[in-house]
Specification:
single chain, about 20% strand, six-stranded parallel sheet, three-stranded antiparallel sheet, 10 helices, about 280 residues, Pantoate--beta-alanine Ligase, Chain: A,domain 2, alpha/beta, 2 domains, Rossmann fold, globular
């Protein structure tokens, strides 16, 4: 049986209030749909730690940069609901644009330093849209616990920071990235890769692994660690590099010299018309 679908804010509030009355712990997994095994792993983690699991599916228009094509983002609602049913999801919130951004909407959440680097530089206003819609969803769902994928590492860290800064009682859990057999991070955008591009995309993970192996061998020079990843990616001329960066996990700031704190390696490339991001924690 398909999960209960909640279209209006009134429907969502009524369901959430009934769960609260019954004393249920509620887990929330926000998505933009086009679900894959990575999303389902978040749902399973949520199911293991809560009495009720709610998933949202909303292709948020405000997080698309001016040069990005919102209309091309995949929308597969029927298939998504079938997948969520197989995982025992209790309810799915399916708002439309007008529900989330009614006429006269004026308030947006602006992140500061962490939102203005890496993806924030490449995708203007992206995180403003992300943080705004997530804040709205948290206010509506009032989740006890939220499950996010670390594949969108900067997004995960920004949401964690927002929850801390704004004194939400919600607990944020970052879940490890699920990968294809060749290491490519699972993503809704992978479906846009051509048959020829698909094997080339696996070079991103090989680059990340090259840096991790060097790190495990004792190397702590950011320059040398970055070079290992860059060499693998640069060997494929089809991969147009946006950035390769090693940053501090705590605030995504750069290292002034050698790595002296927990670090994460982040990569963004374009392959044909498809932009791909990935990361790996160095530990």
């Amino acid at each position: 049986m398909l999960p209960s679908t909640l279209i209006s804010i009134a429907d969502l509030k009524a369901r959430r209030e009934s769960w609260a009355t019954e004393g249920h712990k509620v887990a929330f997994v926000p998505t933009m749909g086009a679900l894959h095994a990575g999303h389902l792993s978040l749902v399973r983690a949520a199911r293991a730690q809560a009495d009720r699991v709610l998933v949202s599916i909303f292709v948020n228009p405000t997080q698309f940069a001016p040069h990005e094509d919102l209309s091309k983002y995949p929308r597969t609602i029927s298939a998504d609901l079938t997948l969520l049913a197989s995982e025992g999801v209790d309810a799915v919130f399916l708002p439309n644009d007008t529900t989330m951004y009614p006429q006269g909407f004026q308030t947006f959440v602006h992140g500061k330093s962490m939102a203005r680097l890496l993806e924030g530089l490449s995708r203007p206003h992206h995180f403003e849209g992300v943080l705004t819609v997530v804040l709205k969803l948290f206010n509506l769902v009032k989740p006890d616990i939220v499950f996010l994928g670390k594949k969108d590492y900067q997004q995960w860290r920004l949401i964690e920071q927002m929850v801390e800064d704004l004194n939400f009682e919600t607990k944020i859990i970052g879940c490890e990235t699920l990968r294809e057999p060749d290491g490519l991070a699972m993503s809704s955008r992978n479906r846009f890769l051509s048959q020829e591009e698909r094997p080339i995309a696996a070079a991103i993970h090989r680059g990340l692994q090259a840096t991790r192996q060097l790190f495990h061998a004792g190397e702590r020079s950011a320059t040398k660690l970055l070079a290992a990843c860059h060499e693998e990616i640069a060997s494929h001329k089809e991969l147009q590099l946006d950035y390769i960066e090693i940053r501090k996990r705590s605030d995504l700031n750069v290292f002034e010299s050698d790595l002296d704190a927990p670090a994460v390696l982040l990569v963004a490339v374009k392959l044909g018309a498809t932009r791909l991001i990935d990361n790996i924690e160095l530990d």
